[in-house]
Design brief:
This protein has helices spanning 2-21, 103-109, 300-303; strands spanning 25-27, 42-44, 62-66, 72-79, 84-88, 91-94, 97-98, 111-112, 117-120, 124-128, 133-134, 149-150, 153-161, 171-177, 180-186, 190-199, 202-209, 230-233, 242-247, 257-266, 279-281, 286-290, 306-307, 311-314. It is 10% helix and 38% strand. It has a six-stranded antiparallel sheet, with no helix packed on it. A five-stranded antiparallel sheet has the order 23-22-4-3-24. It has a five-stranded antiparallel sheet with strand order 9-10-19-14-15, with no helix packed on it.
């Protein structure tokens, strides 16, 4: 009898461990998390996803949760318990300060600037932006709403650094966003993403190696560091009228640099709800969640803050 009970207890523990360990998968409905997630996409939690019920969501993570109507929804966490959250001029603020998205998060949600014109020379690709840049989207062509101007824009380039047989010289490119510029060092051979722009009140820039992926719908290459290596306050009020990527003149000791592609991107523009509320004070057990596509999302702007029991599983990268 004791052996039978021991075996039964072991089987129960194995079943519980399997339930906790398995990644949970869902099919996406709606456009609330576009462009990163579109209808029909399949998303998954990570291993040990059953333990997500005991985790506290962190800022900018994507989670599944139960909406007020009990439907399963995917949203991004912006506000944490005890914080004062605001939506000001299309930006999310915490205690009055704009939240600066890291490269990995921007790469999930950035959209191409529509109608940017391209000017190419041997050493430079320059993009002239429309004035103003609006928050229109390519994945909802039938959408009917008043478009809002977007201030946060930038440039993203795919750049190949060719391998040299000898020497350790490193390649460099110059990136310009409006009147601001920065020189970026590409330390290794391979295909690099170079991203710079005006973002959340800052002038930011980063470079990283990447491999193209079919499931990426953002105009930015996938991946990126967890923080911006180059980050300065944007202290100018003028609009960004152009962006450019330029190779730096090199001698025989320098590796060859090829600009494969350049696009202009814009950041997400959060729209205040029709009710007009733009400030929320979160209680000690409340979180604030938003969709990546404000025009197609119902979220904490409409429901209010979300309590911990509403959260289900945290989405794990890569998001497919």
């Amino acid at each position: 009898m004791t052996l039978r009970r021991t075996l039964l207890a072991g089987l129960i523990l194995l079943a519980l461990a399997g339930w906790l360990a398995r990644p949970v998968r869902w099919e996406v409905e709606g456009l609330s998390m576009a462009p990163g997630l579109l209808p029909g996409d399949v998303v998954a939690g990570g291993w040990l996803s059953g333990l997500d019920r005991f985790r506290r969501p962190r800022r900018l993570e994507r989670w599944t949760l139960a909406a007020p109507d009990e439907a399963l929804a995917v949203k991004r966490v912006w506000g944490l318990p005890g914080e004062e959250i605001g939506i000001v001029d299309g930006e999310v603020t915490v205690a009055g300060r704009v939240v600066v998205k890291p490269p990995r998060v921007l790469a999930e949600m950035a959209l191409p600037v529509m109608a940017a014109s391209r000017h190419v020379t041997d050493a430079e690709v320059r993009l002239v932006l429309p004035d103003p840049v609006f928050d229109d989207v390519p994945f909802a062509p039938e959408e009917r709403r008043v478009l809002e101007p977007v201030c946060d824009v930038g440039v993203a380039a795919a750049i190949t650094v060719e391998r040299k047989d000898h020497g350790d010289a490193q390649a460099e490119v110059e990136v310009f966003v409006g009147s601001r510029g920065v020189r970026v060092r590409l330390q290794r051979p391979g295909r690099h993403a170079v991203v710079a722009g005006r973002l959340d009140g800052a002038f930011v820039a980063a470079a990283w190696l990447f491999e193209p992926r079919r499931d990426v719908r953002s105009c930015l290459p996938p991946g990126g560091p967890a923080a911006w290596p180059f980050h300065h306050v944007w202290d100018r009020a003028e609009p960004v009228m152009s962006c450019a990527v330029r190779t730096v003149a090199s001698g025989t000791a320098m590796p060859r640099v090829v600009i494969d592609d350049v696009v202009a991107w814009r950041d997400i523009h959060h729209v205040a709800p029709a009710a007009g509320t733009t400030q929320w004070r979160l209680a000690a057990d409340e979180w604030f969640v938003l969709g990546d596509y404000p025009g197609g999302s119902r979220d904490s702007r409409h429901w209010g803050p979300v309590r911990i029991e509403r959260f289900r599983e945290r989405l794990a990268p890569p998001f497919k």
